Amino acid sequence: MRIGFNARYFYDPGLRGFNRYSFALLRALQNIPDVETHLFSEERYPVHELYRSALRAQVTNLAASRTLLWEQWRLPRHLKKLNLDVFHAPAEGGLPLQKVCPYVLTYHGVPDRSLASLVRSGELTGKLDTYFDSHTNNRTYVSAVFHRLRARVFSHLYLRAADLVITVSNFSKRELVHFMGVPPEKVRVIYEAADDSFVQPLPSEYLQQVLQKYQIPPRFVLFVGGFDKRKNVSTLLTVFARLSAEEPDVALVLVGIGGDIQGSREQSSSLGLREGRSVFFLQRITDRELAALYRSASLFTTLSWHEGFCLPIVEAMTCGTPVLASCFGAIAEVLGDGGWLVDPRRPQDVVERMKTILSQSAVRDELRARALSRSKWFSWQKTALQTWGAYKQLCQGDQSAATYS
């Protein structure tokens, strides 16, 4: 089977978001016999050497003065010449409207529509911009409206162009059906998984080395993710400030990039949290170092308002880290019985749950065991096999969707 991939974002070596999903999927797919992969990007944004060296894939960087011209003219002309079996756009866009072969689109969720619905229903109080970054703050009103409408139009066009839509949770499937009007039979749910680097055991000496490198104390709460509003880092900092008043030897370690990191730093300072002592902001650390932090943490937590999947939860469970997570979005579906859920609208309840986990070793041991057991549900081998099965069904003319099992 000859599969083409839109590798437009592979110019960036950062393994996060769409790139992490795409790279992990491609690495697993290449272990399936008789699968041949082709990566397509722009000459202005060529596929980075990190991906070229790690993947057995043919790489084509096509010249175009604009991305839309590349996507809608150069790309379909080249795909037609190659006579591929399937073309997969793994980053919520990038499908040609001209059909030259069966198309697959991975779409991870609809956070803006979903959160707006929660605000309208009163489940979340206040305004939408409390919970979601519009990314149009520096634009004029007319420009902001134009870009929002343009993004919505293109999202609908990509979803319509796709013969099959892959999404990463049943929660996200319901969003696509309800908010975007995608027929349910067109959507296949296939979970993500943790990278192999989080599965491999690490020597205790290395764990200590990482903690010493960043001057992190033995007891700490870990958060991994971005700093955009839907990740709700502001509530986490507020909760931790209350916890720190009673547990001064516990630190908060926040690992991530994107969003308003400086705003989070300023908030932590205003709450009396000293950076480098009670709170740590880490960016662009290696996966091996991140795995060491997961394995060393007393607790992993996220209080996000919306998640289409939440890969850090799976990484934490794979490392046997006790998990305390928000009840919003797809988190309950992904976490299962692998940890505890909390309502981020009730900060004091979160504080009490944290205190229970941090103070009782028996509770931590139980949560570690539950996390490791639940983590067995997720593997990139399973993800790749299910994705390959979806390709085969599509090529055979069977577009019936099936949930993850």
Describe this structure in words.
This protein is α/β, with parallel strands linked by helices and 405 residues long. The chain folds into two domains: 208 residues, Rossmann fold; 180 residues, 3-Layer(aba) Sandwich (Rossmann fold), CATH 3.40.50.2000. 44% of the residues lie in helices and 14% in strands. The protein has 15 helices and 13 strands. The strands form two sheets. It has a seven-stranded parallel beta sheet with strand order 3-2-1-4-5-6-7, with helices on both faces. The radius of gyration is 22 Å and the shape is globular. It starts with a strand and ends in a 10-residue tail after the last helix. The C terminus is likely disordered.
Provide a quick synopsis of the model.
The chain has helices at residues 17-29, 49-54, 67-82, 111-121, 141-161, 170-180, 204-213, 233-246, 261-270, 287-296, 311-318, 331-335, 347-359, 361-375, 380-395, and strands at residues 2-6, 36-42, 57-62, 86-89, 103-106, 164-167, 187-189, 220-224, 251-255, 279-282, 299-302, 323-326, 340-342.
- Basic shape: globular
Number of self-contained structural domains: 2
Number of strands: 13
Average pLDDT level:
93
The main sheet orders its strands as 3-2-1-4-5-6-7
Helix content: 40-55%
* Helix/strand/pairing category: alpha/beta
What is the third-level CATH name, the topology of the largest domain? Rossmann fold
- Note poorly predicted spans: 399-405
User: Beta fraction of the residues?
Assistant: 5-15%
Radius of gyration: 22 Å
For CATH, the homologous superfamily of the largest domain is named as Glycogen Phosphorylase B
Helical segment count: 15
Task: Profile the largest sheet.
Answer: 7 strands, parallel
Distance between the termini: 24 Å
